[in-house]
Specification:
heterodimer, A: about 280 residues, alpha/beta, Rossmann fold, 2 domains, 7-stranded mixed beta sheet, 4-stranded antiparallel beta sheet, about 20% strand, disordered C terminus, B: about 280 residues, mainly alpha, 9 helices
Chain lengths: ~280, ~280
């Protein structure tokens, strides 16, 4: 398969070279993947199910060790790091999980205070709460919900708390794992807007979004990376993606557009058909 | 000839199956041992999890006190009554107290407490960790740079070992109270003889033996249940299956290990010349 690099990349936050991962020693989920994720921009990783998006994400976060290859975070090689070094490195990351992954025995506020309690022991309790409240406000959660448990919150509210928790330690890299999966179109748009507004508020933060939602990719991405069979099929701007001649990319775009049109038609939509 | 071949194949197949089962059993025991050792080791590394330890001690201990008191009380009553009926035939009813005492403190107390707490708290531990695993809460801890083994598993392991002897002590007390109640108040035995015989036959090391067993049972069920929960796979169904397997295996382990522990303790008594039976 030919890897197409369309753009010259600016300075990389994450640099991946010849990354291979096999769980059983025979089949490779990541098959010699090379990728540069630019600093300070929003990069969306898309692809069909089973193309290695989540596995790649776990490698970036140091949750999985590769079979071979190199991963550098801000020029620091992480594949040979010890658990302690990885733990330190993970302070640079904030992650919003697919279903927010909030601790269900803690309130919204306690969830956001938690990473501060773990890593900022120098702060007083009052200061921690103050920071947590500021992050929740930044994520757009109404103050009356701060004392609610995750089970008492809607999907959108949970995403907001999850994002606030991810922002608690002022991370340099924000990772979003399928942030709009399972949400209705209104909430999807809300989450997309939240990603963009958070990124705009925090200049210099690198955002990596894993998604199979093409519409979301075009709404928020500075860069789109399409994966296939454990390798990068295409890396470029959304426009490059639309103009691509690669058959698999064209099929992915066509299916995404059709799905998008169906969603808007079913909503009686004269909604925006952004992909044209 | 054909029948003989068939028999040979079946015979070979049986032994291959047996060998595979034994292999997976050994691997499982190895994995549990590694998990347990790692969990306990992490408890003594920074940051110390004292508040989590207290929380889990409260959950395993405080919330089990009611059921342990009830179980101990009725076990004491039933055992005392059965022993009384037997001993009455040989005119030895004054020995009901020490017999119940020894049975409860050395065997029934730790075993029944182990079974009850494994079912109640062990099941809850597996379900809690399992649901945290399938809803990515454990992954979230890891991404936040918090060691999930240290935060979630270590305090539970330590709490179980600390609390189990305390609960067993409560069980023993409730059982002896039940025994006293039925012997003195219902069967109208001589109270002085009851206490005299009990003091004469029961030694502190009988109580300690039960408490030691209880701590070991706590270690076993906590390691098994947290391990099952921590490595749960496959959504809500997986949580249910893990909880079921965790509780069943814990209960079997409590009962099976009791025999080996008793043998070990008797060996200890012999080596150190402690008079086990007066």
């Amino acid at each position: 398969m030919e890897v197409v690099e369309i753009h010259d990349q600016p300075v990389s936050a994450i640099s991946i070279k010849d990354l291979k991962k096999s769980f059983d020693g025979r089949e490779f989920v990541l098959n010699g993947m090379s990728l540069e994720i630019p600093k300070g921009q929003i990069t969306v990783l898309i692809g069909y199910s089973g193309t290695g998006k989540s596995v790649l994400l776990k490698h970036i976060l140091g949750l999985l060790k590769p079979t071979s290859g190199s991963i550098k975070i801000f020029s620091q090689e992480i594949t040979g790091m010890t658990v302690e070094e990885l733990t330190k490195l993970r302070n640079k990351f904030g992650m919003l999980f697919q279903y927010a992954a909030l601790f269900d025995d803690m309130t919204a506020l306690e969830n956001v205070v938690f990473p501060l309690k773990e890593h900022r022991r120098d702060l007083s309790k009052t200061k921690m709460v103050e920071i947590a409240r500021a992050r929740l406000k930044e994520s757009g959660l109404d103050e009356k919900h701060y004392g609610k448990l995750p089970s008492e919150m809607s999907g959108g509210m949970r995403k907001r708390v999850g994002l606030a928790r991810a922002l608690a330690l002022d991370p340099e890299i924000l990772v979003y794992d399928e942030p709009t999966t399972g949400l209705d179109p209104v909430l999807t748009e809300m989450v997309d807007n939240l990603i963009v507004s958070t990124h705009n508020l925090r200049q210099g933060t690198t955002s990596v979004v894993v998604s199979h939602d093409l519409y979301a990719a075009f709404r928020i991405a500075d860069h789109v990376v399409m994966l296939d069979s454990g390798r990068v099929l295409l890396h470029g701007t959304p426009q490059d993606f639309l103009n691509s001649d690669i058959d698999l990319v064209k099929r992915f775009v066509a299916k995404g557009v059709r799905k998008e049109l169906q969603v808007h038609d079913s909503q009686n939509g004269n909604g925006t058909r952004t992909v044209e | 000839m054909i029948a003989r071949d068939k028999f040979n194949r079946a015979f070979d197949g049986f032994f291959i199956w047996l060998a595979m089962k034994f292999r997976s059993f050994v691997l499982e025991v190895g994995a549990l041992a590694r998990f347990g050792i790692h969990g306990y080791r992490l408890f003594f590394t920074r940051p110390y999890r004292w508040s989590e330890l207290v929380t889990h001690m409260e959950f395993i201990g405080n919330k089990s006190v009611g059921i342990i008191l009830m179980s101990g009380f009725f076990t004491g009553i039933a055992l005392a009554y059965q022993i009384y009926l037997g001993f009455k035939l040989v005119n030895a009813t004054s020995l009901v107290g020490p017999t119940v005492g020894m049975g409860v403190m050395r065997e029934l107390g730790p075993v029944l407490t182990g079974l009850i707490v494994a079912a109640r708290a062990g099941g809850a531990m597996t379900a809690r960790l399992g649901s945290m695993r399938v809803t990515e809460q454990i992954d979230a801890l890891e991404v936040m740079g918090v060691n999930p083994m240290q935060y979630l598993v270590s305090p539970r392991l330590m709490a179980a070992v600390i609390v189990m002897p305390l609960l067993t002590g409560i069980f023993d007390f409730a059982a002896m109270f039940g025994c006293w109640l039925i012997c003195i108040k219902l069967l109208e035995m001589d109270e002085a003889a009851f206490f005299d015989r009990t003091y004469l036959w029961l030694e502190p090391f009988h109580i300690n033996e039960g408490l030691f067993k209880a701590a070991v049972f706590g270690l076993f069920f906590a390691v098994i249940c947290t391990h099952r929960g921590f490595y749960t796979k496959g959504g809500a169904e997986g949580v249910g299956a893990a909880t079921n397997r965790g509780v069943v295996l814990s209960m079997v382990m409590v009962i099976a290990s009791d025999f080996f522990l008793t043998s070990f303790i008797n060996m200890f008594y012999n080596v150190f010349g402690m008079n086990n039976w007066k």
